[in-house]
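Supplementary Methods, section 5.1.

A reviewer requested that the exact input to the structure prediction be made available. We therefore reproduce it here, unchanged from the version used in the analyses.
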Amino acid sequence: MKRDYLFTSESVSEGHPDKMCDRISDAILDAVLAQDPLSRVACETLIARNNIFIAGEITSKAKIDYAETAKKALREVSERPNLNWFNEKNCIIQTNIAHQSSNISNAVDCCEELGAGDQGMMFGYACNETAEYMPLAIYLAHRLMEKHAQVRKNGLLPWLGPDAKAQVTVRYQNHTPVSVEKVLISTQHEENIDNKTIYNKVKEYIIETVIPNELRGADIEYLINPSGLFVLGGPVADTGLTGRKIIVDTYGGSCPHGGGAFSGKDPTKVDRSAAYMARYMAKNIVAAGLASRVTIQLSYAIGIPQPTSLMINTHGTGIYSDSEIEKAVRVVFPLTPKGIIDSLDLRKPIYKNTASYGHFGRKGFSWEKTDCTEILKQALTASGA
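The structure derived from this sequence is encoded token-by-token as follows.
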């Protein structure tokens, strides 16, 4: 039976208060890893009004200035103190950093392959809806927020503020995207800009440059600042916290989520590194033509190197059975914490760039490579599948 439905995903800008906190946490992680790649880091940030509170557990030989690292990360978002967003020059920064628990450290260092840094479930997903093997709605929502930052910073729309959200609603027929039906953008702006100008310019310079004409539904609806004024933004208007946009970070709700946040965590934390591996496996499965979409679940127990479970679900689209693909995946991809870290080269300071516009579907990250497609096919052939 033919099924027709709508599906919506959202993204938020780099100036959203939660994303400001993700950025600070990952900037600190990068700064620490740059000096000591074997550091153990679990860093979280809270921001409200002109206060920043940085807390967590960091065991490292690195010596960094947490306050200056945080300020630099936010200056990269905006250096305009006249905006009703945030002014780092008069902010108050407090830190409460301790060492990693010896119990957790011993569990991780239990063997050569490293034990998992915590228990948890991680999901990976890929589909053939876009060239990036990402669901269309979240892919477009991220591109809208990237374009928002671009036209704000290059002076095309200089009256935009850093804080913004986007939402894209896609119509599906038989699990295939056919059109974009609604686009919502709420953006901070300067006080002297009227709503009509905001609507027209955002539509012209952001939405229409990102959403291809052939994808726009016949009755596409644009909702631009539907609440009216949006002058106060960032932590001036709302509190931010690390790890509070995990669906934005992953697949926009197109697959389950294990619940663990990513930002501020070194790769011994499997809720980050194993989620990257799950994406890597899923993307290679779809890129190899073995399925048109796939969901992968991994789970781990603290101190245990091997996952406690691995599930492959191709949603009925696989050219081999899910169990056959699972066997091939176990042969091709290392699933211990050390194996994941080494194969994806995760001890580098690469993480600040993940803090906005999603961790997946973007160039430059090792887990986005499709270099295992042929070996996956060979593993399936060798198994007699």
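The chain is about 30% helix and 25% strand. These observations are discussed further in the main text.
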